[in-house]
Amino acid sequence: MPGHGELAPIAAVFVLLLCAILLFLLGRRVLSPDGSHRDPSGQAPGPERRKAAFVINPIKIDSERRRRAWATEACRQVGLSEPLWLRTTPEDPGSGQTRQALDRGAGVILAFGGDGTVRSVASELASTGIPLGILPAGTGNLFARNLGVSVSDLDDALQVAFGGTERTVDIGRAEIDVTGRDSAPRQESFLVMAGLGFDAEVMAEVEPRLKQKVGWWAYVVAGMRLLHGRRTKVAIRRDDGPPLVRRIRSVVIGNCGELTGGIQLMPEARLDDGWLDVVVVSPRGVAGWAAVAAAVLTRSRRHHTIVDHFRCRKIEIRAERPLHVQMDGDPSGTAKVLRVHVDPSALTVRSPMPRIPWKPWNG
Q: How many other CB atoms sit within 10 Å of the CB of residue 316?
């Protein structure tokens, strides 16, 4: 039987897969004031909404002056006025800037940054009908990947943001109950995945200076250090069913399922299907993590003794002790109870044109 030292590389593979969650661990038309969108007041926007707003994370942009000139010229070419250029801050990662853009009549709002910036902008755009465009500039860019937006070509991503197909996608709504008895639990939203337990703990443990030096390897270092943590007893209630009692290391709730490198953590997850996909991970020690890695790589999840995968529209996870929580890779403190439900078709996004199946002509 192989020893723990021999299994450690296999466990590391899983850590890489799971940490990818955190890295975030989510017909062609040009902007047209045709009355198809609604602003937060419920009124159809008029001709004044021929303006784009860029909500940018300045830390993620290579040359802000050059990028602003690039954005302004692109707007001119598609017949839009000079865009709004709104910078995020550590205190406000995008919500306030998005509200400002809406108030100033923006007809499309582009999130220029990583998954955290996209999440903040999307949370404010939900149910407004104003479309979200994505300019991926983060490490994981998982929401962009799942939409099919290029994460390596910003020119292509900008073209999609201005002239792509509009589609509606789901949003995950979370209620973070710190004590399990909070009178007003904190409300959060996510586009890609939310997590309780190991994955969120890794995110919280990463040192910013190490991340700055070695990038995503910082998550691997933190993950390897936390592999030997203890399992926690939780009661999981799906929809209106009876509670399922498990001892877990992590519960990941997904709105979409593709990670970096095309790895499918949740193969059945779709952005617009009205369902949440849930993966429950319950390993013991390094050997258990090796089994988790094998289950993820082979997509063998359902009714697995260590990795289980199911679908629901709402879920409540009640833990016997506070566990770390993450939303699209952003640490969200700790909680004894996490409640999540899907908000179907809440967000309008600009995505690449769907590919039409092509059948060769045999004439």
A: 18
User: Residue 247: in which H helix or E strand, if any?
Assistant: strand 244-248
pTM (two decimals): 0.80
Lowest mean pLDDT among 96-110, 124-138, 198-212: 198-212
Q: Give 13-46 pLDDT, tens digit per residue.
A: 444 445 444 443 333 333 333 333 344 434 444 4
Residue 289's CATH number: 2.60.200.40
Contact 136, 112 (CB under 8 A): no
The answer to whether 59 and 240 are in contact (CB under 8 A) is: no
User: Which CATH number goes with the domain that contains 153?
Assistant: 3.40.50.10330
Closest Cα to residue 146, out of 358, 351, 363? 351
Is residue 152 within 8 A of residue 137, CB to CB? The reply is no
In this structure, are 150 and 208 located in the same domain?
Answer: no
Question: Does residue 1 or residue 124 have the better pLDDT?
Answer: 124
Residue 101: pLDDT above 60? yes
DSSP-derived secondary structure for 172-188: EEEEEESSS--SSPEEE
Domain residue limits at 153 = 30-163
Is the model's pLDDT at 151 over the cut of 90? Answer: yes
Burial profile 285-295: b = 16 or more Cβ within 10 angstroms, e = fewer: ebbbbbbbbbb
Structure tokens at 148: 């099919």
How confident is the model at residue 286, as a pLDDT? 74
Q: Cα–Cα distance between 319 and 245 in angstroms, integer?
A: 10
Specify if 362 maps to a domain: no
- The answer, yes or no, to whether residue 262 has pLDDT greater than 80, is no
Same domain? 181 vs 146: no
251 contacts: CB under 8 Å, gap ≥ 6: 195, 196, 197, 234, 236, 278, 279, 280, 281, 317, 338
Residue 102, classified by CB atoms within 10 Å of its CB into exposed (0-12), middle (13-18) or buried (19+), is buried
What is the C-alpha end-to-end distance of the chain, expressed in Å? 61
In the DSSP assignment, the letter for residue 283 is -
> What is the structure's pLDDT at 42?
42
Give the type of residue at 103.
D
Answer yes or no: is pLDDT of 197 > 80.
yes
